[in-house]
């Protein structure tokens, strides 16, 4: 691994970067810096600009304005120097070659290649090394893309929705390998719609929305930023929902009914910006909540809350 990136040279530096497609502003004045050894998840709703951001970072597209630097150089130079390994969302794989041939080609092209057999093994491809690339399942093709991204010793690994189509064990093996890569000091940047993966894997989460950075922090910080907590409880018998819907600090409520021989009951799930006050008012209604639980938001709920609040602010 090369170590020329110093503490003062970000692995990736975006400075006021914008990219438009016609009238669509895909990336809008984006500034960010990634540092050595970070594992960073890039989240955002469909069309938020994640793929465009990664394309800019990889020099596949040019910014309309602003600068993109990778290890202090242009993206193209960083790639030519073998410092970046990338796995794109649906990059076409050459049709008439075998898995082993394609991986060998990627190794041959890398300035600091690993052994083909090791690359195949790491991506769990040894068993299907002789299969034609166009005969693979979606998950297997995804593992080939992963192998191509890790064909050599790169300092930055960029992954666009890497585990889409992978089964559970392939996904676990994939992230175990990525952890190893990060533990060895590499920077890993991945775009994903699987928020549980971001929560479990990333030590930094970037939330993009309409090409802008809406949140940047640890998963815990993002959850706290959403500023809401979950309250859930069961109520026995028939209930009047109106007072529940009027509880203070409530941002959302769902009531699911469940009937049984013993009578009806309902489970109420609430999001509140002040759970203590909401629960206090709940008891004030004279009801008897059973199985009361108060918990922080999961990353997924926090993400939904943050992006919905931004949508509301902009409309
Ligand atoms: N080649 C293109 N031509 C025109 N518009 C484009 C092009 N690529 C992306 N866009 C638009 O730019 C915006 C950002 O797209 P981008 O693919 O970067 O988002 P994303 O966050 O990766 O989305 P997804 O989660 O759906 O993959 C979207 O509005 C998209 O429709």
UniProtKB/TrEMBL annotation:
GO MF, any single term: ATP binding
Membrane topology: Peripheral membrane protein
Primary residence: membrane
Residue ranges of every copy of the ABC transporter domain listed in the record: 12-235
SUPFAM superfamilies: P-loop containing nucleoside triphosphate hydrolases
Keyword set, alphabetical order: Antibiotic resistance, ATP-binding, Nucleotide-binding, Transport
Superkingdom per UniProt: Bacteria
Pfam families, sorted: ABC_tran
Cellular localization per UniProt: Cell membrane
PANTHER family the record matches: ABC TRANSPORTER ATP-BINDING PROTEIN (PTHR42711:SF17)
Protein name, entry field: ABC transporter ATP-binding protein
Organism for this UniProt entry: Streptomyces cylindrosporus
């Amino acid at each position: 691994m090369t170590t020329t990136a110093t503490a003062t040279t970000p692995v990736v530096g975006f400075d006021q970067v914008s990219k438009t497609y016609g009238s669509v502003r895909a990336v809008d004045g984006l500034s960010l810096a990634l540092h050595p050894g970070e594992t960073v998840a890039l989240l955002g709703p469909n069309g938020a600009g994640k793929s465009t951001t990664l394309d800019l970072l990889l020099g596949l597209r040019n910014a309309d304005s602003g600068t993109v630097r990778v290890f202090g150089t242009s993206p193209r130079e960083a790639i030519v120097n073998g410092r970046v390994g990338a796995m794109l969302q649906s990059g076409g794989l050459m049709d008439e070659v075998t898995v082993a041939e394609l991986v060998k080609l990627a190794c041959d092209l890398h300035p600091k290649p690993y052994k083909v057999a090791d690359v195949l093994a790491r991506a769990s491809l040894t068993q299907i090394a002789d299969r034609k690339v166009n005969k693979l399942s979606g998950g297997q093709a995804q593992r080939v893309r992963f192998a191509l991204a890790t064909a050599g010793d790169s300092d930055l690994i960029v992954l666009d929705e890497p585990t889409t189509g992978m089964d559970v064990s392939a996904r676990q093996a994939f992230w175990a390998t990525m952890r190893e890569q990060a533990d060895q000091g590499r920077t890993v940047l991945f775009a994903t719609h699987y928020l549980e993966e971001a929560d479990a894997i990333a030590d930094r989460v970037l939330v993009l929305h309409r090409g802008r950075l809406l949140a940047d922090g640890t998963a815990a910080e993002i959850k706290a930023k959403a500023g809401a907590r979950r309250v859930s409880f069961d109520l026995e018998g028939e209930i009047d929902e109106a007072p529940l819907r009027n509880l203070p600090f409530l941002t959302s409520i769902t009531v699911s009914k469940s009937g049984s021989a013993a009578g009806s009951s309902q489970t109420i799930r609430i999001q509140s910006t002040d759970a203590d006050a909401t629960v206090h008012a709940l008891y004030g209604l004279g009801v008897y909540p059973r199985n009361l639980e108060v918990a922080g938001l999961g990353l997924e709920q926090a993400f939904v809350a943050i992006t919905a609040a931004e949508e509301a602010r902009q409309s």
